[in-house]
Write a structure and sequence with these properties.
The complex is a heterodimer of chains A (about 140) and B (about 150).
Chain A: E1 3-5, E2 26-30, H1 34-46, E3 50-54, H2 57-65, E4 72-75, H3 84-93, E5 99-104, H4 109-117, E6 122-125, H5 130-142
Parallel strand pairs in A: 2-3, 2-4, 4-5, 5-6
Antiparallel strand pairs in A: 1-6
Chain B: H1 3-19, H2 25-33, H3 41-65, H4 71-88, H5 91-105, H6 109-140
The chains are: A alpha/beta (about 140), B mainly alpha (about 150).
């Protein structure tokens, strides 16, 4: 399975917030692998977004607890300390309504579905490419 | 050698990496991310891949020396390796990773060992060719337009 999502969101997701189209889209990339971090950061920057990085799910939760917010969160599944499933569930329980897109190297249906159930809007198999990013950003701009 | 000939040589060397099945479309995606803000992006990413690969090859070598084999651990290492290889478009390396994981799932230790030897050969070949390519590309300097044919 290469991609899932942008259909019905899970019951734990709330309505998306309105994005101000005049300011840059803010993106949080959650990824522990430095190689993937670098690729995704440059890719998202090239698409004109403002990028911040987090190395695991706990860093993401801490960021939101400190008052940070992002239009889009791109999160890996397997990370140390707190993985993508746990982090997504936590964010949704905190009332975070940002678009959360999973990006994982796991490609079994069951694994992706489990990730989606945590509260993702969509999930893609790594690596991200221009086509996938375009779909995500168009989806974000259309809400 | 005049500049145009040098650029053609770089282009041919690059094209051969795709023609020989060593690289796939993901490498082109990386090239398209390289610009004035990130002039050495591709080589930096590939260097990170070499670093990841060295660590994983060592881990897998050590794990394959153990008895009995821990297939779950081997599969986990190879999952990481496959992820890295996919990220730079290392097509043949990625294929060997997939095959290795199939042997892991089947609990076939000999298959794992055989495939890993092949994987290391493919990795060494890719690394050698990429190093030659980047060295020549650096000597020749950037071209004005990207050459996208693959």
């Amino acid at each position: 399975m290469e991609k899932m999502g942008f259909g019905n969101v899970t019951s734990t997701s709330k309505t998306m917030k309105i994005i101000d189209t005049e300011k840059k889209i803010s993106v949080l990339i959650v990824e522990d692998d430095l190689l993937i971090q670098k690729i995704h950061k440059v890719m998202m920057t090239k698409f004109g977004t403002e990028v911040q990085l987090a190395a695991n799910g706990k860093e993401v939760v801490d960021l939101f607890l400190s008052g940070a917010s992002f239009d889009l969160i791109l999160t890996d599944l397997e990370m140390p300390i707190m993985d993508g499933i746990e982090a997504t569930k936590k964010l949704r329980s905190m009332g975070v309504t940002s678009m959360i897109v999973g990006v994982t190297s796991r490609n079994q249906d069951s694994e992706i579905q489990a990730f989606m159930k945590s509260g993702l809007n969509a999930c893609y198999v790594k690596p991200l490419n221009a086509e996938k990013v375009t779909v995500v950003l168009n989806e974000l701009k259309n809400i | 050698m005049d500049r145009n000939k040098q650029h053609r040589q770089v282009a041919l060397m690059r094209q051969s990496l795709f023609d020989q099945g060593l690289l796939d479309e993901q490498f082109v995606q990386l090239e398209e991310l390289q610009d004035d803000a990130n002039p050495n992006f591709v080589e930096e990413v590939v260097t990170l891949f070499y670093r990841d690969s060295a660590r994983l090859i060592l881990n897998i070598d050590q794990a394959l020396d153990k008895s009995p084999l821990d297939f779950a651990k081997l599969d986990s290492y190879m999952h990481q390796f496959k992820g890295s290889a996919s990220s730079i478009g290392a097509k043949k390396v990625k294929s060997e990773c997939t095959l290795f994981r199939e042997y892991c799932k089947a609990g076939n230790g000999e298959g794992c060992k055989r495939t890993f030897q092949q994987l290391k050969k493919e990795y060494a070949l890719l690394r050698k060719k990429l190093e030659s390519y980047f060295q020549l590309a650096r000597q020749v300097g950037p071209v004005e337009t990207a050459c996208r044919r693959i």
